[in-house]
Amino acid sequence: MTVIGEFIKKAIDVYGFVTSEPDPVKAQNEVLKKLIDTAKLTAFGKKYNFSKLLTSTNLVEAFQQEVPVHDYDKMYDEWWHYLLEGHQNVTWPGGQKYFALSSGTTSTSKYIPVTDDMVDAIRKSGIQQVMSLKNFDLPADFFEKQIMMLGSSVNLIQQDDHQEGEISGISAANIPAWFRTYYKPGIDIASLTDWDEKVRRIAEEAPNWDIGSLSGIPSWIEMMLKEVIAHNRLSTIHDIWPNLQVYTSGGVAFEPYRKSLETLLARPLTYIDTYLTSEGYLATQKRPDTSSMALIVDNGIFFEFVPFIDENMDEDGRVRPEAGVLSLEAAEENVNYVLLISTVSGTWRYMIGDTVMITDKQRAEIKITGRTKHFLNVVGEQLSVYQMNQAMQVMQQQFDIEIKEFVVSAIRKNGEYINKWVIGSNKTVDNHAFALALDRELCETNKNYNVARSKSLKGVEAEVMPVANVYRWSEEFKKLGGQAKIPRVMKEEDFLEFEQYVTGLL
Length: 506
Hints:
Elements lengths: L2 H16 L5 H15 L4 H5 L2 H4 L5 H8 L5 H13 L13 E4 L9 E4 L1 H16 L14 E4 L7 E3 L2 E4 L1 H7 L9 E2 L1 H5 L4 H11 L5 E6 L1 H14 L14 E4 L5 H8 L7 E8 L2 E5 L8 E3 L5 E7 L18 E2 L8 E8 L6 E11 L4 E7 L13 H15 L3 E11 L2 E10 L5 H15 L1 H7 L3 E10 H11 L14 H12 L3
Parallel strand pairs: 1-5, 3-6, 3-7, 7-8, 8-9, 18-19
Antiparallel strand pairs: 1-2, 4-5, 9-10, 10-11, 11-16, 12-13, 12-14, 14-15, 15-16, 17-18
Helix pairs in contact: 10-11, 13-14, 14-15, 16-17
């Protein structure tokens, strides 16, 4: 073990020893107070009486009573469009240097403000993640190795007085100078916007690097690793990167991808989940004995929780104005919640679109359970993405396949509703048998789905096909790489167009 590696590891251990995890509730109260105080003279702060709120004896309650819940459309239509026009002090002090172009599962780009304070907060959260590595018992020489961060292009788009790009590109463009020695694929390759060219260049340069950890969305990491292996005629990625030990996942649940990813490895990695969104770095896994992530409660983000039940949501997947909203202090474990955030980028009581479950309240640990608009409940199925992922893991074992992507919709057939699934896999199986097994699994694990199958949901169909077909659709109609994700649930009209395209490739 080298001296440098030992020094870094010891520094991390010492930092962890002299610092302690904050009390989540106390930290959240302090974050909210600081957010409101900082933004009190903005247009938003003046409209919602932030100066007065600061005199309240119960700041959280006063804040919730005064400020309405927002989704993206409400924030943009009422506030953020002024930022694009060059106005200052709108929802956060100062002007606007960056906008993150949301590249999730919707087709329309969203412009999410990323302030200097948010860039700083993301950097600090990254440091928290690094410091938590002391809990994963990694050897000292790991801390000398390079980090492959596969994200969007760091070549941001200049628009008038601001720059635009995906949050991974904005974050990479602002990495500290000292970190660039460790960062791969490096700024030149990371600036490329064409996915195929970027992966080709990575494959060519791979023999020159000593990668210790990977970071990125599982599906795109897997595609990159396959290209490196094929180009360099390897058996596994460890033939060229023998010191690869850690994979930091983000964007989607990792478990559905584990089986297929591990076919590319000589040995399993240490897997660490993170929760980085266009709106901020929300959570990171801090210990190895759980797959849950700890909310970053002391770094510029205030969290709220709305019980994810029918009476709290409208038909478009938005939180109703009269819905009850809970702070972390009042929220409970093992309940499905819609997550709201208020941040140093000037998002206020903002519905990020994810649903989460608190798994350990004392540690403020959560699991992402799905998306508010990727929750299948057309005829009472009440299927969350979390439950779908669990079912897909069972199907992988039962049919000995790797399920890399899936999309489902409730569609009408002969005047009645069925659930239709498109499954992107490494090999095909009997579609009818797969549909029967998937239906049986969901009936056993979801009582609401079981009831729906006896009433309004008249059938289940599945089409298991090469995952390349799904990626071809993504490449043509969305894009490949970066933070791009395949939607899990589609509306009927969108699904039928998607299905026509991917089955046309068979």
